[in-house]
Specification:
Radius of gyration: 16 Å
Strand content: 15-25%
Distance between the termini: 8 Å
Number of domains: 1
Oligomer: single chain
Structural class: alpha/beta
Shape: globular
Number of helices: 5
CATH architecture: Alpha-Beta Complex
Order of helices and strands: EHEHEEHEEEHH
Number of strands: 7
CATH class: Alpha Beta
Length: 193
């Protein structure tokens, strides 16, 4: 495997970058995506495809190794939705709060609350090579938002083994012990040593 010390991150989401920085080895420097590289259209049918599109665009533009991830919340009672459209569940420009409201509305009256978060983390190298991993955490959708930490669907997702707390009720340290993102980036950190 390639020994990597610097990665250009494909995301401009500061919340994600903060979590990723806490999960990778301290010796790995994350560089912000240049402003000249715009948002990449996430048009792939799966998480790996979307991560690959983003990482490839940034690596091709910068000539450096690029790190991208894609995450989805897959709810059993909704046939796996919102899935790859998680960040756009309530519309293409939806806010976190709008997506949370849309999910609560879709779950109204549903007994089966099982769900899982999946994250794919992918590094693309300038030579076209890549490595990727997936992290998964199972849990359930609670009936109302709880907690003020985290982002996205964190106020609605209580992971298995999380003492009944939602991700938004946990500290970042607690969340990183059990989250999908920590599983993915922990595995990726091992590959990049």
């Amino acid at each position: 495997m390639k020994h990597v010390r610097r990665l250009v991150v494909a995301t401009a989401n500061r919340d994600k970058i903060t979590e990723i920085e806490a999960l990778l080895d301290p010796g790995v420097e994350l560089l912000e995506r240049p402003s000249s590289v715009g948002e990449v259209e996430e048009e792939a049918p799966d998480l790996i495809g979307n991560a690959r599109l983003k990482a490839s665009a940034v690596s091709d533009a910068t000539g450096q190794p690029s790190l991208a991830d894609d995450t989805g919340l897959f709810v059993a009672a909704l046939g796996g939705k919102p899935g790859v459209r998680s960040s756009r569940f309530a519309g293409d420009a939806a806010t976190y709060a709008e997506n949370v409201s849309a999910l609560l509305a879709a779950m109204d009256g549903r007994v089966d609350r099982r769900a899982e978060f999946r994250t794919v983390a992918l590094v693309r190298f300038p030579d076209g090579g890549e490595v990727w991993v997936q992290g998964v955490v199972r849990g359930e959708i609670v009936d109302r938002p709880r907690g003020a930490a985290g982002f996205g669907y964190d106020p609605l997702f209580a992971p298995d083994g999380g003492r009944g707390l939602t991700f938004a009720e946990m500290t970042l340290v607690e969340k990183n012990r059990c989250s999908h993102r920590s599983a993915a980036f922990g595995a990726l950190a091992v590959l990049l040593r």
